[in-house]
Design brief:
Helix content is about 60%, strand content about 0%. The chain contains nine helices and no strands. Helix 1 packs antiparallel against helix 8 and helix 3 (about 35-55) packs across helix 5 (about 65-80). Mean pLDDT is about 90; it is low at about 1-20. The chain binds protoporphyrin IX containing FE.
Length: about 140
């Protein structure tokens, strides 16, 4: 088999995951709608960043950053990924997290706080899982950069 035929590129898998998660859920609604549209995404992202600041395992990474800018970028990214009417114009995940050397435990801590924020802002269980499955493939682009 020629090397170009080897099924080793993660891109199709990533696209499939993105396509599935952005596809309407059981009730025919998009994930974006299930997250509560723009106000829901804004509440979620603001709560996540607030919780990240209060978590001693990761707060040091957020100390010097511009919260308003991060919230704006994260909002656009989640809106876009979930099928909302937004465009993400920020950096790639490896560029955005470059120099932080985020480890597995720190990544998991961030996802825990994101999950707490989803529960706290009333996002339904199935939507929580769909959003997490969209973000999980980014792990490799974020850790150890
Ligand atoms: C799936 C998980 C994650 C997603 C989707 C995500 C998304 C983003 C986005 C969209 C930005 C802004 C990019 C830009 O300004 O161009 C960003 C920046 C940032 N992220 Fe993440 N991130 C994730 C995980 C993490 C983790 C685990 C940490 C730390 C524990 C972290 C810490 C930061 C910090 C401190 C910045 C600001 C960087 C700067 O302004 O220079 N992120 N992230």
């Amino acid at each position: 088999m020629r090397s170009s035929m080897l099924p080793c590129t993660p891109l199709p898998v990533l696209l499939l995951v993105v396509a599935c998660a952005a596809t309407p859920g059981p009730g025919g609604r998009s994930l974006y709608e299930d997250l509560g549209g723009q106000p829901g995404v804004e509440r979620l992202v603001t709560a996540t960043v607030r919780l990240a600041h209060s978590d001693k395992r990761i707060s040091f990474l957020f100390e010097k950053m511009n919260d308003a800018e991060l919230i704006r970028q994260l909002q656009d990214q989640i809106c876009y990924l979930s099928g909302g009417p937004c465009e993400y114009k920020g950096r790639s995940m490896s560029e955005a997290h470059s120099g932080m050397d985020i480890n597995e435990a720190e990544f998991d801590a961030f996802v825990e706080r994101l999950t707490d924020a989803m529960v706290g802002t009333g996002i339904p269980h199935s939507a929580r899982n769909r959003l997490l499955s969209l973000l999980a493939p980014m792990r490799e682009e974020i850790i150890h950069q």
